[in-house]
Design brief:
- By secondary structure, this protein is α/β, with parallel strands linked by helices.
- Helix content is 39%, strand content 14%.
- The protein has a 4-stranded mixed sheet, sandwiched between helices. A 3-stranded parallel sheet has the order 3-2-4, sandwiched between helices.
- Helix 1 crosses helix 8 (247-257) and helix 9 (260-280) runs parallel beside helix 13.
- The radius of gyration is 21 Å and the shape is globular.
- The structure holds pyridoxal-5'-phosphate (PLP).
- The site of pyridoxal-5'-phosphate (PLP) has 15 residues, from helix 3 and helix 4.
- Pyridoxal-5'-phosphate is lined by residues 59-61, 85-86, 88-89, 135, 161, 163-164, 195, 197, 207, 209.
């Protein structure tokens, strides 16, 4: 049996004709820059994320870049972020002439550890750090309650890299009460950044991205920077870029957004099925496999309700990772390593500086493996994956 890491055809099949009809309609409209499809998607995403503003942009990378530009981050500045993410999170910082400062991850959630953030900020006596970028890795929110408390204490804005986490939610218990509030990824910081890269839970037919914000002035600035900073047109008080989202992509995304919650549900079901199958095969910690978790060590044992994980990736931590990966490849099962190096280990950075070792990140980079989790993956395929892993350890 062949099991790809990602197959977009099952979800495409659900909407293929509707998408094609829509593409033809946009082509015939002759409206190819900005316009009603982009504005429509912005309204719908703002609604979906419970924020007041959404600005369509050209990619997740550009969403991060334009957000840092809106905070006037530049040469001499520093930005605090996680060393365990896709390169774009750090690339945008370096492109603006600023430097990343890394806080290591929590080894259970793989997300940035708030205690490590605080330890760094305590030592930042020159106040060089201008922003904090937590990443909601794999579709699970970082500990935004603590991160926002730190952000407020030090007066440093948070840009949420929610590229992998559109629709993920973070639960904030009310102290001394049974109640609490759910917050959508991207809705707590000064802004949240999404990517519509095809492999994300909401993927376009190419590149696209979105910045969401509750802050009117910030959103207005991002809107201007998206289009070369001109206001009124041809009068430029600041330097932006061409970071616009294509109407063609926006139109397709509006169709796909209608099915997004259903697809999140299918990914979550698949994750549950893996969890059960690994239990049945008795492969779970303290044996060979550590399952992904929607549980924080902290805060207060709220367990799995703390997070609505959308499983952009299903990540296991395994013994003899590289050998296992080869074994699975021989059985036609595709897997991936996200990510083989910490950002602090990337050559383009180590040439400039000599960053501190990041213990939990470097360990995760050697031990984690992404298994297929996409909507449309069949139970038979999942059984085959788990069986093959069990065979490896026997
Ligand atoms: C995908 C991704 C990005 C970049 O998004 P693009 O749309 O590919 O530019 C940024 N950060 C993270 C964490 C990502 O996974």
């Amino acid at each position: 049996m062949k099991v790809p890491l990602l197959d977009l055809s099952p979800t495409l099949a659900e909407q293929r004709q509707e998408i094609i009809d829509k593409v033809i309609q946009v082509v015939d409209s002759t409206r190819y820059i900005q316009g009603p499809e982009v504005e429509g998607l912005e309204d719908e995403i703002a609604d979906y994320c419970s924020v007041s503003h959404a600005i369509g942009v050209s990619s997740g990378t550009d969403a991060l870049l334009v957000s840092l530009m809106a905070l006037d981050v530049g040469p001499g500045d520093q930005v605090l972020t996680t060393p365990y993410s896709f390169f774009a999170t750090m690339g945008v910082i370096l492109r603006l002439g600023a430097m990343p400062v890394f806080a290591d991850i929590d080894p259970i959630s793989y997300n940035i550890d708030p205690s490590a953030i605080e330890a760094i900020l305590e030592k930042d006596s020159e106040r060089k750090i201008k922003a904090i970028i937590p990443v909601h890795l794999y579709g699970q929110c970082a500990d935004m309650k603590r991160i926002m408390a730190i952000s407020e204490k030090y007066g440093i804005p948070v840009i949420e890299d929610a590229a992998q986490a559109i629709g993920a939610e973070f639960y904030e218990p009310e102290s001394g009460s049974e109640n609490g509030n759910w917050h959508k990824a991207g809705s707590l910081g000064v802004c949240g950044c999404f990517s519509f890269f095809p492999s994300k839970n909401l993927g376009a037919l190419g590149d696209g991205g979105m910045v969401v914000s509750r802050d009117e002035a910030f959103a207005q600035k991002v809107r201007l920077l998206r289009n070369h900073g001109g206001a009124p047109k041809y009068y430029h008080s600041m330097v932006g870029g061409n970071f616009r989202l294509d109407p063609l992509q926006a139109a397709v995304l509006r169709i796909k957004l209608k099915n997004l919650e259903k697809w999140h549900g299918q990914r979550r079901e698949n994750a549950e099925r893996y969890n059960t199958l690994f239990q049945v095969e008795k492969l779970i910690e303290p044996a060979q496999i550590t399952l992904p978790t929607a549980v924080f060590k902290d805060p207060v044992g709220r367990n799995s309700r703390s997070n609505y994980h959308i499983y952009n990736q299903y990540i296991v931590r395994v013994e003899r990772r590289d050998e296992l990966r080869n074994w699975l490849a021989q059985k036609d099962i595709a897997t991936e390593i996200y990510y083989p190096l910490g950002l602090h280990q990337q050559e383009c950075l180590t040439k400039m500086t000599n960053p501190h070792p990041m213990v939990h990140t470097e360990k995760a980079a050697k031990e984690t493996l992404a298994l297929p989790i996409y909507p449309g993956l069949t139970p038979e395929m999942q059984e085959y994956v788990v069986k093959s892993i069990a065979d490896f350890y026997r």
